[in-house]
Amino acid sequence: MQGSLVLEDGTVVGGLVFGARKTVYGELVFNTNMTGYCEALTDPSYRGQILMMTYPLIGNYGVDPTTVESSEIQVTGYVVREACRTPSHPTSRMGLEAFLQQYGIPGLERVDTRTLTLRTRTRGTMRAALAVEGDNLDDVARTVRAMLFPDQARNLVAEVSCRGPIVHTGQGPLTFALIDCGVKKSIIDNAKTFGTVVQLPWNATSEDVLAVKPDGVIIANGPGDPAHPDVVRNTVRTARELADRHVPLFGICLGHQILGLAFGGKTNKLKFGHRGGNQPVKDLRTGRVYISSQNHGFAVDAASLDGSGFAMTHVNLNDNTCEGIVHGELPVMSVQYHPEAHPGPHDNTYLFSEFVARIRRSGG
User: In CATH, what number does 156-361 get?
Assistant: First the structure.
């Protein structure tokens, strides 16, 4: 089946549909990873987005169910240069197209992703549609131009969060409460090496969190705008109340942004975001540069945290955006990127140990 990618700037690119045969609307973003498409497809932070891969061949090692990061494919649509039809890997259980079909997600291949990536870098992320053969493209284009971005129209965090507490028994003596804003399975797995993780919904109150009697609290990654009114009324408020009670907090990705907002900071939407496994981040405390895995479209304005008690600990060397903060008096720290790094480099798993050390210094 023929299909088209329709962008808000008037660009229309043709290709071949694979996966589900249906038209979808979302925000077009790109990821620069060479591997890890199973993890990317199932990362809740992509909710509401049409994901485009810059690497030209996707699907060659098939789909291994043990590598997924959530219970379903989270992207709205998928765009690649070439989708491999004959995967080869001993752990593969199905091909990429079958995986997309299983969850009703359309894909588009035979697309010049290089040109589209350059256009996105110049224009910024755009509203888009992945349309199938038979659609009136003029009507599709009008819908694209009239619609809101998904992070404006919907509470994406509520869509991907758990509905009630889930206990993950760990190997160590600690107990973590994890506020699930769209958590990746790998974050839970890393935390479990230090103790038991109690996964709580995004709108858990500070009383709900304290009822777990946690040694520390992880505020997880997730999709959308951290300043969405529902998130501010619930998750941001809970984070501030826990901080005021000196509960050790560790924010990851969206959790980092939530902590910034909780202390009076501001966030802003990046032109095209950071999505990939090769983002250079400098730890300002040691001068060491780490290669990091990232997936976010918003950033904390470091200057807006002046006077809040926070110091910036990490900076992105590509665009100098804030990648980490730590509070001078309270046991609170956060990073913008993904220390669990699946897929991606393992340079940054030390951050979990750093949080545990902070818990122990605070008496946990």
Answer: 3.40.50.880
